[in-house]
């Protein structure tokens, strides 16, 4: 009997959503199910398991294996229960002697071409073929193994994470369908016919060389050991599973961490995951080996000077030393001479504690987070227009969208599971507009392509958004009733008059953007009139000198066309890191307390003062770039940096490292000696997401549990280290479990009032606001009214960036991510994901390459007003002439040596996406790279030669 209530139970075919209920009788028992449900699923819902091989409830039925035959009154033969929908009054028999015979015969055929190595097979005990053979009572195979078979076919072990063993394949095609329907890559196919049919990966001789992106959906779908995780082959079947959340991107996929003792065997996406529904990408599913990598530092370390070798000390010694340094520096240079950075990779509870420590124990508001360099303009822009600093929809909302506008985002690389969902919607007929300087995969991928790709020049988003708005207003495409009912009248009128100006017409701004006016008009018409229209945007919008303006421009478009406040529409920032939404929510910005409440608000401050027992400073503290400036000015002397590698991720590396060098005490808390830690005086070993409890909040405001599956390698989870530091500073913190921290957050944050671990466990996950008004959370925001009351149209005048091309720097560099690597790469570089991307490369258009004598693979020097570095060239038509592109995952590439410290006018978010550069063919590394290598080698030596001492000798 199968357990229908166990969410992991495979009910054979997908659920159907219908208002019409159909009643039928299965083996003498009655059941009512939604119309369209298969007989197989209806039986499973009664607890009756019909044998199956080619069916699984994550895929539409295919009907190829014939194991699931049933008898149905009035129907001839033995219909397949997976492909037969229920009908009213149907009478079904799933177990009869005749069916048993037929099923045994089919199974006999399968087994006659299958190795009988069950005892030594990695799937032993968890193989559907084995289970079904037992289920149908197979006792002998009459055909022998002498005839033609596939038993000697060669194994493909090329993929670093899974093997393909064709001798075990039953050609059920679940893998092919998973790759098509779930992942949307279409990398697999069945070649040949009948007995000759085999699974093949397209586009290469083996899996690694093929078009496969290693998402693992096929591995998960395979009912046999044909496609199997290497970790499972090595470690054997897991014994238990813990539900937790991916620590990579802002999709926030839910996983079952399958364990054997305290060893992780594999990560299997959770079917119940609200953001991922059982799917994952190569990072979350496979790239977790970094968590136990030998480079992990598991002992606290201190040193007086950067030139000194590290000394391993006890936790007590390390936090006492850090605290004494912070206090010494404050005494000497003043209260505001120190600050902290919270991590978007750590949990909500940990980010909350760091900002609390800064505001209480440090006594200032010098706290910031990496959102400063990514989505701070989202926070500002959406707050101004809509009243809340977060995306408006669930990911699932895209399945109701008719038109999807992707601007400055590359979901298939940076948010892969959402990218797959988006592609699924496109295959169902939704229409796509891409606005991006680069031809991202979505522009033209198998069975999903953009109707319009507006390949604008980097730095012209605001011009483009104004031109789109001009068309909507001037061609009478406004949703006037929505605007009248929901938006501020005067602001709207001002905006309408502004965008109507001839200078905002596509004919005027098209040449600025480098996009034909007709394309802009077509895109505006499609967005405004194509039905439900949803906007998805990323760092290609925010990381500009007018990032906040562009976010407001996007919100304006949504309000102007009434595309907000229901499913299928909205304004959706695709947040980069796993908990960047959460770190912002938790009060990590210098001007805001948790829940985005301004520090200058006396009432709000009073609430926190009472809870925290301190007097809070009423003025905003320093943002990260201000901290660097102040460090160079000599007024900022110490930093507590948790889980953030500012020396690699922030722009103008040489400026950042000079600032770090200027400080007297840099405390880094991380799992590796990252680039910032090379400038540190105290190293507090961090804990991976597998080693702690807590929560992450994804891009759709979904708060999900992170659950500890193993003890912290360094003995403390990150939150415990912050607690220890606060206590050493004389500010008492006394939490026994992160749930107590969440209870405090919930008490003090109106949008979190009903959030608790118990409630999250009950719902699986919760989307904030979750409070008295919305006890089950809020998947879609601004339904009846905007959070700020009336929506506010903001003026978005286009101001070209100061970063211009000239004869010295004639090309525009823009940067981004790649699927297999993550952010600064500290995690993914320490996994086999390097098989796909082992170095950053510079994409350059063939015309620009040719005029510079550059060929694919050549070393090229790239120089900007900020610095120079050297990368290998990748000649590609993905970029337009005049534009070059690189990723920033490898520190030695120095992509951020080139980026400037231009930044968004409202939030200081750096303008990573526009840097004027020149590219030339070279034969040796840049001066910066030589200096970097020397310094890095020296720091690695100092780490390697670290001393262990009972008592540290570095006290001043
Ligand atoms: S590889 Fe697995 S899923 Fe694919 S056809 Fe073979 S048995 Fe089925
Ligand atoms: S791993 Fe993913 S992309 Fe690769 S073949 Fe399997 S389903 Fe397709
Ligand atoms: S899509 Fe993002 S959250 Fe999901 S598995 Fe991949 S990296 Fe993790
Ligand atoms: S499970 Fe129905 S035909 Fe394979």
Features:
956 residues; six-stranded mixed barrel; 30 helices; globular; binds iron/sulfur cluster
Query: What's the shape?
Result: globular
Number of strands: 37
Q: How many helices?
A: 30
What class do helices, strands and sheet pairing give? Answer: alpha/beta
Distance between the termini: 70 Å
Spatial order of strands in the largest sheet? 15-14-25-26-27-12-13-37
- The gyration radius over C-alpha positions equals 29 Å
Q: What about the largest sheet?
A: 8 strands, mixed
Structure description:
This protein is α/β, with parallel strands linked by helices and 956 residues long. Helix content is 30%, strand content 16%. The chain contains 30 helices and 37 strands. An 8-stranded mixed sheet has the order 15-14-25-26-27-12-13-37. A 6-stranded mixed beta barrel has the order 31-35-32-34-33-36. Strand 14 (338-342), helix 9 and strand 15 form a beta-alpha-beta unit. The mean pLDDT is 93. Bound molecules: iron/sulfur cluster (3 copies) and FE2/S2 (inorganic) cluster. One iron/sulfur cluster binds at residues 178-179, 183, 185, 187-188, 201, 212-218.
């Amino acid at each position: 009997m199968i357990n229908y209530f166990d969410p992991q139970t495979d009910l054979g075919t997908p659920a159907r959503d219908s208002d019409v209920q159909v009643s039928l009788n299965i083996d003498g028992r009655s059941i009512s199910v939604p119309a369209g449900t298969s007989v197989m699923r209806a039986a499973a819902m009664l607890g009756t398991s019909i044998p199956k091989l080619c069916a699984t409830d994550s895929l539409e039925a295919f009907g190829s294996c014939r194991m699931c035959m049933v008898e149905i009154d009035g129907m001839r033969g033995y219909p397949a229960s997976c492909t037969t929908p229920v009908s009213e009054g149907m009478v079904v028999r799933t177990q009869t002697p005749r069916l048993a015979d037929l099923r045994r015969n089919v199974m006999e055929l399968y087994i006659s071409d299958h190795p009988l190595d069950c005892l030594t097979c990695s799937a032993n005990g968890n193989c559907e073929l084995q289970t079904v053979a037992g289920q149908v009572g197979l006792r002998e195979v009459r055909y022998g193994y002498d005839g033609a078979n596939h038993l000697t076919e060669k194994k493909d072990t090329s993929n670093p994470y899974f093997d393909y063993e064709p001798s075990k394949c039953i050609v059920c095609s679940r893998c092919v369908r998973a790759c098509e329907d779930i992942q949307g890559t279409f990398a697999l196919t069945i070649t040949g016919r009948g007995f000759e049919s085999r699974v093949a990966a397209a586009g290469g001789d083996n899996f690694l060389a093929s078009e496969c992106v290693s998402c693992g959906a096929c591995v998960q779908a395979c009912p046999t050991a044909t496609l199997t995780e290497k970790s499972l082959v090595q470690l054997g079947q897991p014994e238990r599973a813990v539900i937790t959340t991916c620590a990579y991107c802002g999709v926030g996929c839910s996983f079952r961490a399958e364990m054997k003792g305290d060893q992780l065997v594999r990560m299997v996406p959770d079917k119940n995951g609200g953001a991922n529904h059982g799917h994952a990408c190569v990072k979350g599913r496979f790239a977790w080996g970094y968590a136990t990598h030998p480079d992990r530092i598991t002992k606290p370390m201190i040193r007086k000077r950067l030139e000194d070798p590290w000394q391993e000390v006890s936790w007590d010694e390390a936090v006492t030393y850090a605290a004494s340094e912070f206090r010494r520096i404050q005494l000497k240079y003043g209260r505001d001479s120190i600050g902290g950075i919270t991590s978007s990779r750590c949990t909500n509870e940990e980010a909350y504690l760091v900002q609390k420590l800064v505001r209480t124990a440090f006594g200032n508001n010098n706290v910031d987070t990496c959102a400063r360099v990514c989505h701070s303009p989202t926070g500002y822009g959406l707050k101004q227009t809509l009243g809340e600093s977060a995306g408006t929809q669930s990911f699932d909302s895209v399945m109701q969208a008719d038109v999807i506008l992707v601007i400055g985002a590359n979901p298939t690389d940076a948010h892969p599971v959402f990218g797959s969902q988006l592609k699924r919607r496109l295959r169902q007929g939704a229409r796509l507009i891409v606005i991006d300087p680069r031809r991202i995969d979505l522009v033209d991928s198998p069975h999903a392509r953009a109707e319009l790709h507006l390949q604008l020049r980097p730095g012209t988003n605001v011009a483009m958004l104004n031109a789109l708005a001009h068309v909507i207003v001037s061609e009478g495409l406004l949703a006037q009733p929505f605007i009248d009912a929901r938006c501020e009248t005067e602001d709207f009128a001002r905006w309408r008059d502004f965008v109507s100006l001839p200078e905002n017409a596509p004919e005027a701004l098209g040449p600025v953007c480098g996009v034909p006016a007709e394309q802009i008009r077509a895109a505006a018409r499609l967005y405004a009139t194509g039905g439900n229209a949803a906007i998805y945007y990323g760092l290609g919008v925010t990381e500009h000198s007018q990032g906040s303006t562009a976010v407001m421009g996007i919100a304006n478009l949504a309000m102007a066309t009434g595309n907000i406040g229901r499913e299928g529409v909205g304004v959706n920032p695709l947040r980069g890191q796993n908990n960047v939404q959460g770190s912002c929510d938790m009060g990590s910005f210098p001007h805001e307390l948790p829940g985005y409440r301004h520090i200058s608000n006396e009432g709000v401050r009073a609430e926190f003062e009472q809870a925290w027992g301190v007097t809070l400073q009423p003025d905003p503290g320093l943002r990260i770039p201000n901290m660097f400036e102040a460090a160079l000015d000599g007024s900022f002397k110490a930093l507590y940096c948790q889980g953030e590698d500012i020396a690699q991720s922030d722009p103008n590396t040489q400026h950042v490292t000079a600032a770090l060098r200027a400080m007297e005490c840099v405390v880094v808390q991380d799992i590796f000696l990252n680039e910032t830690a090379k400038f540190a005086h105290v190293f507090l070993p961090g804990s991976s997401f597998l080693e702690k409890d807590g929560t992450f909040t994804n891009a759709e405001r979904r708060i999900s549990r992170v659950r500890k599956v193993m003890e912290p390698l360094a003995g403390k989870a990150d939150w415990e280290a912050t607690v220890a530091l606060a206590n050493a500073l004389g500010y008492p913190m006394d939490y026994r479990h992160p749930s107590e921290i969440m209870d405090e957050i919930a008490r003090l944050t109106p949008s979190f009032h009903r959030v608790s671990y118990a409630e999250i466990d009950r719902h699986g996950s919760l989307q904030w606001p979750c409070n008295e008004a919305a006890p089950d959370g809020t998947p879609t925001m601004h339904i009846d009214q905007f959070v700020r009351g009336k929506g506010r149209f903001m003026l978005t005048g286009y101001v070209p960036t100061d970063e211009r091309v000239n004869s010295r720097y004639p090309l525009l560099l823009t940067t981004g991510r790649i699927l297999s690597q993550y952010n600064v790469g500290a995690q993914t570089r320490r996994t086999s994901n390097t098989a796909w991307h082992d170095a950053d490369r510079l994409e350059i258009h063939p015309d620009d390459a040719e005029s510079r004598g550059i060929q694919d693979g050549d070393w090229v020097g790239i120089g900007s007003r900020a610095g120079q570095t050297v990368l290998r060239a990748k000649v590609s038509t993905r970029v337009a002439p005049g534009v070059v592109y690189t990723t920033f995952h490898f520190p030695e590439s120095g992509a951020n040596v080139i980026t400037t410290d231009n930044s968004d006018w409202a939030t200081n978010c750096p303008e990573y996406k526009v840097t004027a550069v020149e590219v030339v063919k070279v034969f040796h590394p840049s001066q910066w790279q030589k200096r970097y290598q020397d310094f890095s080698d020296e720091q690695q030596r100092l780490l390697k030669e670290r001393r262990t001492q009972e008592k540290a000798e570095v006290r001043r």
